[in-house]
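Morning F.,

Quick status update on the modeling queue. The single chain you submitted on Monday has been processed. Sequence for confirmation:
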Amino acid sequence: MSSTVQGHCDPAFAAVREVFEQHFADGRELGAAVAVYAGDRKVVDLWGGVADHRTGRAWTADTPCFGFSCTKAVTAAAALLLAERGAYEVDGPVTAWWPEFGEHGKDGATAAHLLSHQVGLPAFDRPVSAEEAADPKALADLLAAQKPEWTPGEAHGYHALTYGWLAGEIVRRLSGRTVGAFAKEEFTGGLDMWIGAPDDVIGRAAKMTAKGRVSGAADGPKTAAGDVLKRIAAAYADPRSPMNRALNNPHPGKGGYNNPVVLRAGWPSAGVLATASGFAGFYRDLVAGRILRPDTLREAMRRRVSGPDRTLIVDSSFGLGFMRPSQTYFVPKRARETAFGHTGAGGSIGLGDPDAGLALAYLPNRMGEQASGDLRAFRLTEAAYASLG
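Structure tokens below.
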């Protein structure tokens, strides 16, 4: 078994450590971290491996890692907190606070449509650079002027990157702050997580890589999860697919998602840098009612859409910004009605479960082959639930 893993693990959650160590022993990881809270008690805080494959720099306790679309859960929480404070109506028209958005038949769109991937703007209709994407107002203006691909509310399709400048515009217009600034000032200030990171944090962050990339479907076609991940991977690789168009524009530019331009900008769809401990702390606080009221969270968890996803090909399910268990958000059977959170491209996951009192985050820097969901994350989540007894 690999000795690269460091950190703390409560004996009752030894199964999580065993799975994590096995991933390293099997060559599935380069560097990674996983953290679990049971209530307010941190029962798992593990890390290991290499943070930078070019230099061999080791992963340490304070190494932040890019979480891709795990960011969306933070953006959703920020938007929902403003709704809870009465700044807007979730099921009210977007045009009440964003008049320009009503162009091209989008006047019937609601904030709930923005938050649940129903608004019909899953991709930009022209190429957008990383430098342009650093200006949230400019990207929101592009989307407001764009024709939807379906009538808002009539279908859902994962708004992989556009989501951040749609749901994020709720925060920018109604608070006067970016999502990153709002979250840091309102509820993540004490956590090691940033959407729009300072240079010192970027300097010690893990470097994302596809080097030695492992398939998320490594267990082969015998598992249903493996088959789903293969279908997602095939769609992602097809340049003509809606998924490819949605996930690759804006392009992060030189260095991919290690590009400091992207990391400083803090894209509200895919921009979070965090330690696993910090990100699990965000879910801990959500589950405990310290960010949103319990009734607000329960309403946000309610499935607004479920079924075939126009972008992701397979079935997906969303509440208000949060993923719910589906083919794109794998959780153990006992969590299928109670878990919420979000995955990130390449394998990362954040999860909360109010009924189980569980919060979990997993952040790897060796990317899997799929756009959403990963069997490494599933195995760790499965071990965490099994440890609850």
